[in-house]
Amino acid sequence: MPTSSAEAAAPALRVRGLRAGYGDAPVVSGVDLDLACGQVAAVVGPNGAGKSTLVKALLGIVGFVEGEVVIDGRVTTGMPLERLARLGVGYVPQVEDVFESLRVRENLDMGGYLLPRRERARRVERVLETFPALRPRLDRYVETLSGGERKMTALARVLMLEPRLLLLDEPTASLSLSVSRVVLDQVRRLADLGKAVLLVEQRAAAALAVADWAYVMVRGGIAMSAPARRVLDDPAMREVFLGARASAGG
Amino acid sequence: MHLLVDAVGFGIAAGAVIAIGAVGFSLQFGMSNVLNITYGALMTLAAYLGLFLLGRGLSAWAAMPLCAALVGLASVGFRRLVVAPLRRRGTGALGMVIVTVSAGIIVEYAIVAVAGTAAQSYGRQSGATLHLLGMTLTAGQVAIILIAAGLMLGLHLLLTRTTLGRAMRATAANPTLARSCGIATERVGDAAWLLSGGLCGAAGVALALTTVSFDFTLGSVFLIPMIAAAVLGGIGQPYGAMLGALVVGIASEVAGALWDPAYKDVVAFLILIVMLLVRPRGLFGAAWSARRLLA
Amino acid sequence: MVRKRWPAAAVALLVAAACQGGTSGGAPPVQIGVVAPFSGPDAQFGKLLSAPCIVASRLIDAAGGIMGASVSCLSIDDTGDPADAVPNVTRALATSGNLRMVVGLESQTAATTIPLVEKAKIPFFTANGLDAFDRTTDRFFWRMTAPDSANGVAFALWASRKGYRRPAIVFENNIGAEGNLPGLQAAMPRLGQTAVIDLTIPGDAASYSSVVDRVVAARPDVLVFSADPQTAATFLSQYSQLNGGSLPPMVTATDSLTPDFFNAVAKAVGVQYVTRSIYLVGSYFDNTTPAFATYARTMSSTPAVKGIARTILSIGPPASIYDGINIMALAMEMAKSTSGPAYDADITRVVSPRSGAVVVHDFAAGKKAIESGKSVRYVGVIGPVTFNRYHNFAGEFAANMFNPDGTSHQVGVMSGADVQSYLG
Questions:
Q1: Beta bridge partners of C380
Q2: Secondary structure (H, E, C), chain B
Q3: What is d(CA B72, CA B75) in angstroms, rounded to the nearest whole number?
Q4: Which chains touch C (3 or more CB pairs under 8 A)?
Q5: What residues does each domain of chain A span?
Q6: CB-CB under 8 Å, C242 with B253
Q7: What fold does the segment set C8-147+289-378 form as a domain?
Q8: Looking at A17-31, B264-278, C202-216, C350-364, which range is the least confident one?
Q9: Which CATH fold would you assign to the domain C149-284+397-421?
Q10: How much is the pLDDT for C418?
Q11: Which residue in A65, A165, C100, C116 could disulfide with C338, CB within 3.0 to 4.6 Å?
Q12: How many angstroms away from the CA of B160 is the closest CA of chain A?
């Protein structure tokens, strides 16, 4: 379980006995998760462990989902994806995380789709304070941007609704090391602002460095649930689960 | 030379009609990934609805928006009653094409059952012949060109300036992400089918005005140049379809003027096949797609 | 024949229903095969070709049948496609119990279907216009419609008689229309005409503007034209728009003597042009003869066909099929046999003038005369017939014009010999 302070507050995300996959075969099974506001929980593990499927299962966008997903005290299993946005759930997929054929400004606009138009303009200003590099790119089409700018657009877009729970699927994949660091710093900052962040990462060491809690996933199940610091500092863990990736930082 | 200039003018006029239809078709495909062959039959339906309204004393120009609205609703009905349930059942792209072909035939024969097989006409509606920039066009053709231009501009403003339009583009680009933003993609899809159905209806009436004489095969015959235009511009991209329509219209008329007119309509097929072979993403390929919504 | 579209299944049902119902028991009914398109885009043509069979069989049955046997029409669908026609015709020939005569066999499929019927040794009257059969040596082949090339000559000849020297030739690209071209092109120089432009157009295009522009620029004094109703209407309306509202007169085929053509063109360019400026040229027959009176009366009182009677009664091919069936039936009576090889030779005898022969205008009168031991000469709807050695008879040609109510009247006749002389 996360830290004692999180136990006191109502958990932003509570998962019990999650089983999900495609067709008849479950990709993840028996997963329990807890995440409180102001916390970053990192889900790490080897390739093919089912990390992305886990995130998609939380959103109901895989073949089938069984078990219980509770967001802010509400059972959301089987709820349509578009309703989750109204509950304050923000999602940044690993790929296809932006509207490619739309301008940056339009991407932000769509991020704030549920807001009145005037409020949207205010929020754009606010997210630009977080990602000032996007300001000169506002009228560019996203497909003309660099990888880092794209990911910033994706994060800025998801912040438009000021979600209370953020699900980030490998936000640093295919980014350079320096850009990754900027992105992960932002993730930490968002948690410090009171958001709950579920961070799925391949770059385990870097992710654990900004996380409060770690879930280590192996073959569709949670193999270890512990404070991030402990996993990071445990030489056995570094060796077994993180391997060379940890030392390389990504 | 004068024949060539004239042919370009006729091509623009033909392209205007094709554009109205092709843009709606392309928009619909972009939104839903359904190659909706019923579209042709719905154009025919619009032409016959126009005929009915003309019989009630309306002018063809007044009938056009009414037909557009009715066919728009029919299009939404088709999506709700046929396309959406099949999609939920996981019907594949090919199955969907077969369904839309069948539905098109059913619509055509329903028209035959009511209106018969004989050729119909709105009568002479074209008005005076005008000479513009060396081109010879009827007032009717000029009106259709202006209507097409107006519809294209309106569509452009809708897609780029309104929340609904942006939501349509967002849904077309990435439906899952759109839903995660809270966009009710089903409702946005309905709006897109309403819009494309409306364009389909307007195109049907414009086509009936252009051909003067038409029967129940009107739309299905016209579907080929329309699909050619849509593919030429990169299917799913409304702006590409506008340009594609002009290219198909002008190519076909210039071929009719300079070459054996028997093969006039073959030009559309030729363009279609060559495009699919060499540039399946459309005339403007990646470079265009980068700026596809700039126009 | 001009291309038309019709719900195929409906037509097939109608025809099949009409063909049911033989009469007396006893001898098995003699089947008359009608090889024609009953499905596909030309299904309406099948309707036109089977109607005369329905009428003839009704009259033959009323006269007591052929040697006591009733007759029935058997629709054999050639689909309008030469490849698809072969299995259908083969199957019908193999499975029909008492198929003794065949009619139809139109231009689109004649090349593949005629050899099959010839091989089966069943006499047939064909409605095809292909020049290839002008000098056929097929024994069971009989034709009383003009070859297409002669039709083409008749177009040019009529235009010449009306004083036109600068025709524009515009034909839709289908077999039926293009068959007329060689005769037309051969005759025009001999008649002192120059084609100012000669174009083939696709059917059902949305716009013919650029094509029309070319024709207008060539400044023709007459359009020699052939296209389906909708294509004709679109073409003419765009012609009128680009030519300051005026249209040159038109010479076209009697194939277009249909309500569809009349309505489509009248709606598009006005009824005045249709009634005053369109000449429809084709095979001629006199509609004041006693044979025509019987044909028309029966056609109009037969439920299955009376809806289309007005159209059928004004065109040549159905009349030649009606006559062909009567001629074959009388030849059977004369030969006292329904077997093809037995009665085929009597076909010429039924129509040729002989001393002492009784001239008859329908099957009933002919049968009566034969039964009383007399020789007969059948003069039917299309008039007196003399077959050449190739079993062909071209007949005469007429020009017709539309009346304001969509019916038609004749405005001139051209003799077969006249037409032949320009064919070269």
A1: C383
A2: CHHHHHHHHHHHHHHHHHHHHHHHHHHHHHHHCCCCCHHHHHHHHHHHHHHHHHHCCCCHHHHHHHHHHHHHHHHHHHHHHHHHHHHHCCCCHHHHHHHHHHHHHHHHHHHHHHHCCCCEECCCCCCCEEEECCEEEEHHHHHHHHHHHHHHHHHHHHHHHCHHHHHHHHHHHCHHHHHHCCCCHHHHHHHHHHHHHHHHHHHHHHHHHHHCEECCCHHHHHHHHHHHHHHHCCCCCHHHHHHHHHHHHHHHHHHHHHCCHHHCCHHHHHHHHHHHHHCCCCCCHHHHHHCCCCC
A3: 5
A4: B
A5: 4-88+164-248, 98-162
A6: no
A7: Rossmann fold (3.40.50)
A8: B264-278
A9: Rossmann fold (3.40.50)
A10: 86
A11: C100
A12: 9
With CB atoms and an 8 Å threshold, state whether B117 touches C6: yes
Biggest CA-to-CA distance, chain B: 57
Q: Chain B interface residues facing chain A, Cβ-Cβ under 8 Å?
A: 163, 166-167, 169-170, 172-174, 176-185, 289-294
B:C CB pairs within 8 Å: 133
pLDDT surpasses 70 at B136? yes
Contact assignment for B257 to C259 by CB distance below 8 Å = no
Domains of chain B, start order:
2-290 (1.10.3470)
pLDDT digits (tens, 9 = 90+) for C206-238: 889 889 999 999 999 999 998 888 899 999 999
- The pTM score is 0.79
Nearest to B184 among A82, A93, A157 (CB): A82
Partners of residue A114 in chain B, C-beta under 8 Å: 181-182
Nearest to C269 by CA among C231, C240, C229: C240
Q: Are A109 and A120 in contact, with CB atoms under 8 Å apart?
A: yes
Task: Count the residues in chain A.
Answer: 250
Which structure tokens are listed for B221?
A: 């015959």
List CB contacts (< 8 A) between C41 and chain B: none
Find out whether C146 and C132 touch, Cβ atoms under 8 Å.
no
Report chain B residues whose CB lies below 8 A from the CB of A81: 176, 179-180
- How high is the ipTM of this complex? 0.88
Helix (H) or strand (E) holding C159: helix C148-161
Name chain A contacts of B163, Cβ cutoff 8 Å.
109, 113, 117
CB A202 within 8 A of CB A48: no
B149 vs chain C: nearest CA distance in angstroms? 19
Phi-psi region of A72 (alpha: psi -120 to 50; beta: other; left: phi over 0): left
Closest CA to A86 of C1, C191, B184, B211: B184
- B290 vs A85, A93, A144: nearest CB: A144
Please give the CATH superfamily to which domain A4-88+164-248 belongs. Answer: P-loop containing nucleotide triphosphate hydrolases (3.40.50.300)
- Return mean pLDDT, chain B: 87
Residues in chain C with CB shorter than 8 Å from the CB of B225 are: 206
pLDDT tens digits, C283-331: 877 778 899 999 999 999 999 888 888 778 877 788 999 999 999 999 9
Distance from CA of A158 to the nearest CA of B (A): 8
Using an 8 Å CB-CB cutoff, list residues of chain B that contact chain C.
2-3, 6-7, 10-11, 13-14, 17, 109, 112, 117-121, 123-124, 126, 129, 136, 138, 207, 210-215, 217, 221-222, 225, 252-254, 256-257, 260-266
pLDDT in tens, C60-96: 999 999 999 999 999 999 988 888 899 999 999 998 8
Q: Give the number of beta-carbon pairs within 8 Å between A and B.
A: 81
**What pLDDT, on a 0 to 100 scale, did the predictor assign at position B278?**
76
CATH 3.40.50.2300 range(s) for chain C read 8-147+289-378, 149-284+397-421
pLDDT band at C196 (very low <50, low <70, confident <90, very high): very high
